[in-house]
């Protein structure tokens, strides 16, 4: 399956040119967004393998704020595409740990090589980190227990953070450091593990399993299951 990429760019012609270039190279362009709010919605919907992100975009949320959201909740690499290279912008961008920074106007080969390197580097990092299963220390033990007990419900980040007297931003950093992933990533992984267990019961409809694991619907479960387990719930059940 080809890598899925979301393009966040408010210049329509530029976005369309990039999309065509990516398709010509065999990539799947999942969506094009011109503002930060739409970008976040599309990232939630498609869970891409990479986000190409302009810094100055329409709306109240700029590209760096979109990258901060990605960093807090998802394991998705980001490459910035921008015409701005001032020191202050670079400092803000670097704080989000991007996998690349391509200045406009860019050459075709420059963009493609940046994408190839970003996807390869991120994949290697993921393979190294995934076998490790860190255990929470005393600060997060109650949080992890709460997550496991409420996988079927909507788990609110503010409630998790407030329960151990942390603000959400600091809580996300602490969780990432101690657990090796963001709170959102951890919740999704545990929901998928629960789904795997429930799929062994062939009398349960997959749509019901999705709801029991906290997913909005069957297709929402499918997307996350495929991303993490490398197969669909239906195929997993059949093979099992």
Number of helices: 12
Assess the beta-strand content as a share of residues: 5-15%
User: What helical percentage do the residues reach?
Assistant: 55-70%
**By helix and strand content, what is the structural category?**
alpha/beta
Distance between the termini: 22 Å
CATH third-tier fold name of the largest domain: Rossmann fold
The CATH architecture of the largest domain:
3-Layer(aba) Sandwich
Q: Topology as H/E string?
A: EHEHEHEHEHHHHHHHH
**What is the total domain count?**
2
Indicate the overall shape.
Answer: globular
Query: What is the CATH top level name of the largest domain?
Result: Alpha Beta
Q: Gyration radius, to the nearest Å?
A: 19 Å
Q: Detail the poorly predicted runs.
A: none
Strand order of the largest sheet: 2-1-3-4-5
Tell me how many strands there are: 5
Q: Could you list some keywords that capture this structure?
A:
single chain; 240 residues; alpha/beta; Rossmann fold; Arc Repressor Mutant, subunit A; 2 domains; 5-stranded parallel β-sheet; globular
Brief synopsis:
This protein has about 240 residues and is α/β, with parallel strands linked by helices.
């Amino acid at each position: 399956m080809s890598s899925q990429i979301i393009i966040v760019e408010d210049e329509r012609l530029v976005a369309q040119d990039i999309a065509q270039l990516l398709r010509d190279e065999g990539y799947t362009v999942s969506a094009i967004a011109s503002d930060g709010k739409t970008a976040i919605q599309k990232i939630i919907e498609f869970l891409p393998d990479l986000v190409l992100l302009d810094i100055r975009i329409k709306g109240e949320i700029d590209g760096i704020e979109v990258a901060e959201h990605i960093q807090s909740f998802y394991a998705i690499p980001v490459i910035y595409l921008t015409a701005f290279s001032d020191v202050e912008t670079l400092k803000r961008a670097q704080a989000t740990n991007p996998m690349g920074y391509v200045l406009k106007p860019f050459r075709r080969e420059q963009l493609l090589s940046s994408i190839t390197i970003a996807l390869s580097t991120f994949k290697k990092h993921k393979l190294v980190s995934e076998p490790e299963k860190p255990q929470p220390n005393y600060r997060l033990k109650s949080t992890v227990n709460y997550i496991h007990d409420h996988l079927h419900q909507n788990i609110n980040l503010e409630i998790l953070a407030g329960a151990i007297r942390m603000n959400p931003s600091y809580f996300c950093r602490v969780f990432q450091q101690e657990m090796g992933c963001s709170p959102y990533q951890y919740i999704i992984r545990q929901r998928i593990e629960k789904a795997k267990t429930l799929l062994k019961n062939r009398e349960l409809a997959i749509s019901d399993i999705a709801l029991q694991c906290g997913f909005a619907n069957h297709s929402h479960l499918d997307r996350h299951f495929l991303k993490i387990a490398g197969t669909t719930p239906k195929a997993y059940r059949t093979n099992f």
